[in-house]
Design brief:
Isopropylmalate Dehydrogenase, 12 strands, seven-stranded mixed β-sheet, alpha/beta
Length: 332
């Protein structure tokens, strides 16, 4: 299998993307990694010794910047590393692509370059959110589309359920609908229309899930529209930052609190890492007719390696084909 990595995407590219690619190539000999980007800059970060034989470079002279307007950039910068990686997937030269670059541009690349699965109206960005039991919950959509219909939410639920089965090995993923209450008739018009569709879908639908329960791990897949989902994600990020900032302030107030902090620091660090959604790897853009994974902009080498691991599992278990087959069966 061949996996393209947008070597120029991310806050620390190309150093971290190259390092992560090397780590992955050494870990999995059955994967060929294609680093897409400025060849000279990529080679400058290659190890001084012999590089793994399953790593190659595909030159792409241009880059989509973090502040570029996504759709315009994808259409105008045809030789940008992200766009070239998308073409490799579309044309069958690679089985998947990974990027830590501009999120909006990656969505545009998925739609305009790779293309949607037939029958899928809108793709969904599906990161893993942390849960107290450590298993995580796949949440979609968390920002690919600000608006959605009940049929879109149905497609999200089916795709999310297939992903957790194929990539994480959960035989019967539990699917919840994000809502303001657990009762079936709660919510706005969108959730009220979506509820009966999810009840009749070929999934294990639990019903409505409130935001306060998401971190408890009461479902494996959480379905919502991109507007609500992105607010949920940003609220979780903000709450975590405030909590740990407040703890830091309290633990530095006195000599005794500093002693307590020294004792608790390893456990607090472990808890913070456990509750950081970026630790759960890349987020798939589900509904695209090819495997497209979005890594966090600040991804380090280990995060890039983990994204390759995710892609490898998804390719092996034919994730895109499974989603396409399920959607085709539903539409016939």
């Amino acid at each position: 299998m061949r996996i393209a990595i947008d070597a120029m995407g991310g806050d620390h590219a190309p150093a971290t993307t190259v390092e992560g690619a090397i780590l992955a190539a050494r870990e999995w000999s059955d994967v060929e990694i294609v680093l897409v980007g400025d060849e000279a800059r990529i080679l400058a970060h290659m190890p001084s010794g012999a590089k793994p034989s399953n790593v190659s470079v595909h030159h792409a002279p241009d880059v989509i910047a973090a502040d570029d307007e996504p759709v315009k950039a994808v259409r105008r910068k045809k030789e940008a590393s992200m766009v070239v990686a998308g073409r490799l997937v579309r044309e069958g030269g690679c089985d998947a692509m990974i990027s830590a670059g501009n999120t909006g541009a990656l969505m545009a690349t998925g739609l305009l370059i790779v293309g949607r699965i037939e029958g899928i109206d809108r793709p969904a960005l599906a990161p893993m959110l942390p849960t107290m039991d450590g298993s995580g919950v796949l949440a979609l959509d968390l920002g690919a589309n600000m608006d959605a219909s009940a049929d879109n939410l149905l497609q999200y639920a089916i795709m999310g359920s297939i992903y957790r089965n194929k990539v994480h090995g959960i035989a019967r993923p539990r699917v919840g609908l994000l809502n303001v209450g657990t009762e079936a008739l709660k919510g706005n018009e969108l959730t009220k229309q979506a509820y009966p569709l999810l009840e009749q879908a070929p999934i294990h639908f639990l019903g409505n899930v409130e935001a306060r329960d998401v971190l408890l791990g009461n479902c494996d897949v959480l379905v919502c529209d991109g507007f609500v989902g992105n607010i949920l994600l940003k609220a979780m990020e903000g709450a975590a930052n405030v909590i740990f900032s407040a703890l830091k302030t309290e633990f530095t107030r006195s000599f005794m609190s500093k002693l307590a902090a020294a004792v608790l620091k390893p456990r607090l660090s472990a808890f913070r890492k456990k509750m950081d959604y970026t630790e759960h790897g890349a987020a798939p853009l589900l509904g695209i007719n090819g495997l497209v994974l979005k890594s966090h902009g600040s991804s380090d080498a280990n995060a890039i390696k983990n994204a390759v691991r995710q892609a490898r599992i998804a390719i092996t278990n034919r994730l895109v084909e499974a989603i396409s087959t399920e959607v085709s069966a539903k539409s016939t």
